[in-house]
Each structure stands twice: as structure tokens, then as C-alpha cells.
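BUG: 3D viewer hangs when loading the predicted structure for this chain

Environment: internal workstation, default settings.
Expected: structure renders.
Actual: progress bar stalls at 90%.

Input used:
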Amino acid sequence: MNQLKCIGVLTSGGDAPGMNAALRAVTRSAIFRGIKVKAIYRGYKGLIGGEIKEFQTQNVSNIIQQGGTIIKTARCPEFETKEGRKIAYENLQKEEIDALIVIGGNGTFTGARIFAQEFNFPIVGVPGTIDNDLYGTDSTIGYDTALNTIIEAVDKIRDTASSHERLFLIEVMGRDAGFLALNAAVASGAEAAVIPEIHTGEDQLEALIQHGFRKSKNSSIVLVSESNGGAMAIAERLKKDHPEYNPRVTVLGHIQRGGSPSAYDRILASRLGAAAIEALLDDQRNIMVGINNDSIVYVPLVRAIKDKKSVDKTLFNTLKMLSI
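C-alpha cells produced before the viewer hung:
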């Protein structure tokens, strides 16, 4: 085992419920192993700006149940430049930080991988994104909570959809990934899901219309990923092709990001945060800690970013069967 003396930790990219639980786990696992912890505020922006503070165990007390991230997050175009990354590296050296743990998603890991290569600096990624689109891990921190938030909203919309016998298009997050839309559609008993990975999504919607969505049900719910114009674009097409229907559109937006993390996300974040410290102590670097079949796995950052995580096509077929 190496002799880590001090680690830095930051959250970056879109916030996700459970990031605080991961921060807590990283901080306390490090302190338990005799390692000093320095929290970097506002992600890479704070790393360049020197917004760095040493954390003790009490700094992460009573945060496991909080959504968002207490150390904030921000976009940082400067980190995309060599000059910006050089300043970040100099700040890490000045603070005597030996390794970095980054909690975030695809963009966060892309920046981390470039930085690690340029400066030969040890970095471990902890997957925190509601999109669940990182390769090598069954689930990302925040995904389960976001899914439950969507289900709660869809259940309420179903009440009014049934009362008025209407077709509702509900747009959820996931610009390049349909995990939220597809799984929420199955869990909420929706009639269809339009997702970027499966181009037959609109065909399924068309089939629903052709069979007459009111024949067997008094309402129809379609979950739509925000890609390709989202629910508004589909609503316009429906109005043009099927003027007899007057679909209603609901865009759930940032409500999906907030809220207290679910039990699953708290446990996942705790396990992955602790595993990140163990990975560094085992001299692992430039990897993401993930979960596969309920076991901790270590995935090279380059694979987590570049390899495509596929939605379960059988689940799409299940939705089709159950929506009759």
C-alpha cells in the first residue's frame, strides 16, 4: 500500500441526489485511514480558483439525507484549456494534495482523464449522475432517486389524464440516454417511451395512435427523453398528423435533480465513496469505482466515458407488451 497523506475531493457537472452521501463516505473513510481530506468547492472552477478547505469528520455530519452538494458545482470552461489545468495542478501541489477523487458524470470524468494524463496525477472517479449513462456500473448515484421522483409525478399526472381521457407526453431528462424514460415508463404503467437509443420509439407511439389509445384505456401516458426536441416536438407532429388528438405536454425539468436521496442511493454512494479511498490506497489511478452485480468494480476512466452503455432492449419489448 502507498502512503497517501492528503486527498482532494470535488463534485462537478449536474448535481445528483446522493453526492453528499458520497462526499461523506470519502471524507470519513479517508480520515479513518489516517489521510487528510481537502474539499474543493465548485468543482474544477474552485480547483483553479483555489477554493479549497480542509474537512474534518464534523464537516460531513448530517448531510447523508441532503440532496444537491454542499461543496457546490459549476461549469468551468477554463479547465478545458491547458493553461487552466496547469493552474489547477499548481494549486493541488500548493495544498500538498497527493490524489483527487471526482464525483460526477461524463463531462467530469473526461476532464479528469485529460488532467491525469497531462500531469501523471492519481484520480479516482465516483459516478454521480441521474442519467445512469456511464459504462461499467449498473447504477450511478442519483439515478434511483430521480426515477422515483419521475414515478411520483407521473402517478399524479395519470389522475388528471384519466379524468379528462387525454394523451399526455411527459418529458424527462436524458439527452443521450433513455434509462430514465424507459424504466419510468415500465414502472408507471405508461403506454410508450420515446428514447434516443431505440428509433422505433416513435413507431410505437404511432401504433398506439393507430389502435386508438382510448379503446382499452381512458388515458395514455408517453415518457419522452429530452433529446431531439423532446416532448414538444412530438406533440407538434401529433397535432399535424392526428388533429383529432390534443396531447398535453409536461416537462418535469430540474425537479428530477433535487430531493433527499433514496435509501438505495445513500447506500450506493457510501459504498462507492469508501471504495474510492481503498482504490487509491491500492495504487489504482485513473479509474472509476462502480457497482456490478452488487460488487464493487474498477473501470478505466477512458472506458467509463467512451464505451456505450446500452439500455435493455428486452425491457422495451416488455413495455410494448404490457401497454396493450
